[in-house]
Amino acid sequence: MTDSGDPSDGSTAASSDEVDYGGISGLREFFGETTMHGVQYTFRGGLLLRFVWLLGVLGCLCGFFYFFITAAINYAGFPSNTKVDIITADSLPTPAITICNSNVALASGVAKSLRNLAFLCRTYNLTVIDDARGCPFTAQQRDTLTESDTRLPAEIIQEIGQSKENMVLDELARSLSTNGTVYTYENSSSFITFITALGLCHTYNADGRFPYQTTIGVNGGRRFIINVNQNEYAGITLLSAGVEVYIHNPGELVRRGQHAIYVGPGQRANIAVKPARRHILGSPYRTPPCTNENLNRDKSLPYSPARCELDCQNQYIAEECECLPLTVSAGVTLTLPSGRRVSRYCSVQEYFSCSSLLDYAFHNNVSVYSECRSRCLLPCEAPPNTYIYGSALSWDLFPNFIASELIIEVLTDFGLYDNPRNITTNLQLVRENFAQINVFYESLSYERIDEQVSVTLSTLFGSVGGNLGLFIGASMLTLLEFGQYITRFFIARFRRLRRQEKDIWQKDDASNDTALDDVVASS
């Protein structure tokens, strides 16, 4: 005699072929055999116990689906995290240092010609009503003088701006180096001048020809004595005097006002440079994506978004004005997206009627600026020997009490001040016009900043698997059990359908036979 089994424990003596997997008995059989925890108890015991277990199973399923959906949404959002490492190096490249006077024009340069003064007044749209700020012209006089000027705007800015020889005091630096000081100061011959709409700027180590630095601290960096020339300020629209300092990679363009360090006269600025290298993720983790291509117009120059944006701006102005803006290098011919080539620079009249207006619009028109920003992507990986430069700043008075007499003596020898005995007056004049800038590495190390994928596919599967085990004790094998049950369910349904169709055919055949017998009998 064979034991048929107790139905209450979920077991059965019938073979799998005798179980109707297309009905409730098949579902009961599956839940009695599955490795998923708890569900078999919903078919055992009294009604209350089964109801409690059903609520528990449904609650665990809800918990699992909540965390599953949360993990899926997080993965679909392409999150990332940032890893920062401190890398020690034997040496670091000498950065490029750009210095620009906040003053567009020196008074002595403006005084060379009425047209120079008219150009400056029209740049700031000032007339005789602003006489206190130095514009003795009516609007008509100002415009007439500038429109009759045959020079290029770049030539005028060069004439009225502060030259590198006037800004970087070579003779003072050399005299200080031979008069008991231990510092070696950089001279103007190491600078390259370029023109901006806001005046002249001068870049030290623009071509990257200086060797790597192996020393740190103020004594191991670069030092400059700068003539701010506050007594030469034209006094137009300026609220403060000083210079803008930019630390960047050699060959990389700077845009005035972005990441500037401002140093005023009478200050010694100690700029401790903190280099970093960055690797960022591309699409879909960043919108717009990063790029490893050189998007500059001139492919021989190192790529930077700032240079790319300037190229885009210059093309935009050249397309609209049919002439080159003053920021385009001499001898350059721009090929526009339309295929047209432009090699003629804008005249003074075109500068004020078109070029300068579009330059202003470019920085204040969100749609135009955004279009160029969308073209000029951040580099995914920094090119070799290029860094992102941060800085830590400290200031003190320049010159200090100890060095003041020596500096005044040297300046007097130059003929700049003719009253060497009046130390107080001369010291005040020095502090109103001169500054010292020290740029150095605070350590021979840099930050390596890496963006990393936060949630990978394996992380997602690990989260889903962990929640499966936590809430319902299931695994990948449980999914195979579900697959097996679903397969058996459809096979049972298919067989049931075939049996029903066969029964219908048999009934039809029997009905036809009965009808035929009736016809024969009646005949």
Low-confidence sequence ranges? 1-16
What is the percentage of strand-forming residues?
15-25%
Secondary structure: number of strands: 13
Name of the top-level CATH class of the largest domain: Mainly Beta
Radius of gyration equals 41 Å
**Average pLDDT value?**
82
What string gives the helices and strands in order?
HHEEHHHHHHEEEEEEHEEHHEHHEEHH
**Class from secondary-structure proportions:** alpha+beta
The tally of helices reads: 15
Distance between the termini: 59 Å
Largest β-sheet summary: 6 strands, mixed
Anisotropy-based shape: elongated
Number of domains: 3
According to CATH, the homologous superfamily of the largest domain is Acid-sensing ion channels like domains
CATH topology of the largest domain: Acid-sensing ion channels like fold
Proportion of helical residues: 40-55%
